[in-house]
Write a structure and sequence with these properties.
The chain has twelve helices and 18 strands. By secondary structure, the chain is of the alpha+beta class. Helix 3 packs parallel to helix 8, helix 6 packs across helix 8 and helix 9 runs antiparallel to helix 11.
């Protein structure tokens, strides 16, 4: 049931809620809690759950949170050395202002409304390194060039269960495109679909993939920022719902040796009149906006890798003939390329296949849109499409073999600093160094298997 309808027939409302609707739901106690959420560097929703009455009486102008939520690793380690916060500054607070025009009810937490927040400085300017703001900044740049971005998210992940030998995939065979699933898997898909619908998120499909335990979800095409918001809520819901069935979702680029999970983002541009700028039919020349956007992606994305491949694990997905790219190339309906031109007519679009599901969708899309704006602004020309084996395309630049090399290129790139701002580059370079330092200090199971004989 949508919250905008008469909610007397059900105990709790669902779906998106307007600012006025939130006030009405508060008065009749249909909303008891407000979850104010900030996407962190990893794309997780962090924040606080407030008493709804207190929040709407005192905190509509913002609530304070420790600034380290934008300066931490996946383990929530307080990291020093960031300009935005650190031990020298004492890990102080910043204000998080709520977006009260975009509120949604959470189906797994009856009576709880989720509100996205924007971290701001004392002078009320947004914190530049906040992932959601970074994406909004790049979308604004494209609007200034006369274009709106629409996006569709396609994400793979692996479901694990606890078995006699430890954590293992929820099924053991290749179920790619299968329509018969283990009962528990079908139950998870059904429950997730209902939860997404109740949250006001339109998904297109769930499917099982080729690797054991691997799934794919695709979402409806629409506003780019909303697509990333929906994906963040989806990941939040998936952990809860899979847990009900004794499963754990893994959003890793390479959850096992030989297995890769991608976060494929489908993008198109629409002009100020609401018309698609990427109208294309197979065999015809690319429209100018599509050609320049693709050229921007191929040209700029080598400078921005830590935004869409942020972990040591990210680079273990890039393997020949794995459906993950190994070179910065493009092709027509070519799943071996970094950028795939797909769709027909007004539905033509760019599918960027570089990010794995360990990526923060806001940051990956910020990198992609910055690259597209660069291509449009500079009217870049596009080199020929890959028309053979993309993994043997010697005319294109190879992807970095590891995070260390990607980081070196990123933090010294004048192009990255121009496209993102110097302080943003420094922030995410420091985060990548922390990721590398952690990885280099760990002894892995594989090392023990090889070393203990």
């Amino acid at each position: 049931m949508n919250a905008s309808t008469d909610h007397a027939a059900a105990p709790w409302p669902t779906g998106p809620v307007t600012r006025d609707g939130l006030q009405r739901l508060l008065k009749d106690r249909s909303v008891t809690d407000i979850m104010l959420a900030v996407p962190d560097l990893q794309g997780r929703l962090l924040g606080k759950t407030f008493n709804a009455v207190v929040f709407l009486e005192r905190m509509t102008g913002g609530a304070e949170m420790c600034s380290y939520i934008l300066a931490t690793d996946i383990d929530m380690t307080p990291l020093d050395g960031f300009e935005v916060t650190g031990w020298d500054e004492g890990f102080g607070d910043f204000l998080v202002t709520p977006d009260l025009d975009h509120v949604r009810m959470l189906p797994h937490r009856p009576g709880t409304a989720l509100i996205f927040g924007t971290p701001v400085h004392d002078d009320a300017t947004p914190v530049a390194v906040a992932p959601r703001h970074m994406l909004a900044t790049q979308l604004l740049r494209l609007r200034q060039l006369g274009y709106q971005v629409k996006a569709g998210v396609e994400a793979e992940f692996v479901l694990y269960t606890d078995g006699p030998l430890g954590r293992e995939p929820a099924w053991s065979t290749n179920l790619d495109y299968a329509l018969q699933h283990p009962p528990a898997v079908g139950d998870v898909f059904h429950a997730l679909g209902e939860a997404l619908s109740d949250a006001g998120i339109v998904h297109e499909a769930f499917k099982t993939e080729g690797a054991p335990g691997q799934c794919e979800v695709t979402f409806a095409y629409g506003d780019a920022l909303a697509a990333c918001d929906d994906y963040a809520v989806f990941k939040h819901l998936t952990h809860h719902i899979a847990g009900r069935y004794g499963m754990t979702p893994a959003f890793m680029a390479a959850p096992q040796t030989g297995v890769g999970s991608g976060l494929h983002l489908h993008l198109s541009l629409w002009n100020e009149h609401g018309d698609p700028a990427f109208v294309h039919h197979r065999g015809q020349q690319l429209p100018p906006a599509m050609e320049r956007a693709t050229a921007g992606l191929i040209s700029a994305l080598p400078h921005l890798a830590p935004l869409y491949a942020p972990t040591v694990n990210s680079y273990k997905r890039y393997r020949p003939h794995s459906f993950a790219p190994t070179r910065y190339n493009w092709g027509f309906d070519h799943r071996g390329c970094a950028v795939r031109i797909t769709g027909h007519g007004a539905g033509a679009r760019l599918e960027v296949r570089l990010a794995g599901t360990d990526a923060n969708a806001y940051l990956a899309l910020a990198a992609y849109t910055a690259a597209i704006a660069h291509g449009l602004d500079e009217a870049l020309t596009l080199r020929p499409a890959c028309d053979g084996d993309a993994y043997h395309d010697r005319d294109s630049i190879p992807l970095y073999p590891d995070l260390a090399e990607a980081l070196t290129y990123f933090e010294h790139s004048t192009a990255a600093q121009f496209l993102l701002d110097k302080n943003v580059v420094q922030h995410y370079a420091h985060a990548a160094r922390a990721e590398l330092a952690w990885s280099r200090s760990q002894v892995t199971d594989v090392e023990r298997q090889r070393g203990i004989r």
